[in-house]
Amino acid sequence: MNKLLLAISALVAFTAGARAADLGAPRSPVAAAVVAPAFNWTGFYLGAHAGFAFGNTTAFGAGCPCPSSPNGVLLGGQLGFNYQINQIVLGVEADLAYAGVSGRSVVPGGTVFYRTNMLGSLRARGGFAVDRALLYVTGGLGLQGASMAVNVGPLEKYTRVGWTLGAGVEYAVTQNWTVKAEYSYYNFGTRTLGPTYAGTVRSDAHTVKLGVNYLFSTGPSAVVARY
């Protein structure tokens, strides 16, 4: 009987010691999940673009209206700034392009030639970011440098300020380089001609552009707004 009690006591003591040893053993740290930070659109950027423009230009006056549908290529650059809050990206952009956009209108008295040599804009941008993709709308001031002539007569050069609206998509292919596709509509209203020609001229334009930007500053994540 005494031997049985001693055996039971030894078994209980061994079990308690084993449990105490388990409780005192250091636990291995649980590995944290590695989450890649979302792309951050905040920062200044500088880039270049190429595209195509088409639209309508019409002169009104003696022997007119003289409608035409000018079209041609664009080549230029842009600079701007983005600021991201959660998935909303706000910014401003200025661009300027050489334009080889020309058209003509044949009328009984001769031919009226139109040409746009420059297109530019200063616009606000607002978009929604899905990591490296940015969908945006844009709008602001449009700028046109143009000229017209009748037959082989002298050129009348003029500059017009109007408005522009558009939309686009931009994608970050690396941490600093992005590519974009953008459509814009420009309206420059009606201008009184002179001193070379009498009358008025009215014009608008549609543009489709492909571009590349270099984003100077990026961070691990965007600003997170707290509510």
Please write out the topology:
Elements: H1 2-24, E1 43-60, E2 66-68, E3 71-85, E4 88-107, E5 110-130, E6 133-150, E7 156-172, E8 177-192, E9 200-215
Structural class: mainly beta
Q: In total, how many beta strands?
A: 9
Q: Main β-sheet, in a few words?
A: 8 strands, antiparallel, barrel
- By CATH, the superfamily comes out as OMPT-like
- Which whole number gives the mean pLDDT? 85
CATH architecture: Beta Barrel
Instruction: Give start-end ranges of low-pLDDT stretches.
Output: 1-16, 30-36
Strand content: over 45%
Distance between the termini: 74 Å
**Helix fraction bin:** 10-25%
Total domains: 1
Describe the protein.
- The chain is mostly beta strands and 227 residues long.
- It has a single domain (43-215), classed as Beta Barrel (Lipocalin).
- It is built from one helix and nine strands.
- The chain has an eight-stranded antiparallel barrel with strand order 1-3-4-5-6-7-8-9.
Provide tags for this entry.
227 residues, mainly beta, Lipocalin, 8-stranded antiparallel barrel, 1 helix, 9 strands, elongated, disordered N terminus
Short précis:
The protein has 227 residues and is mainly β.
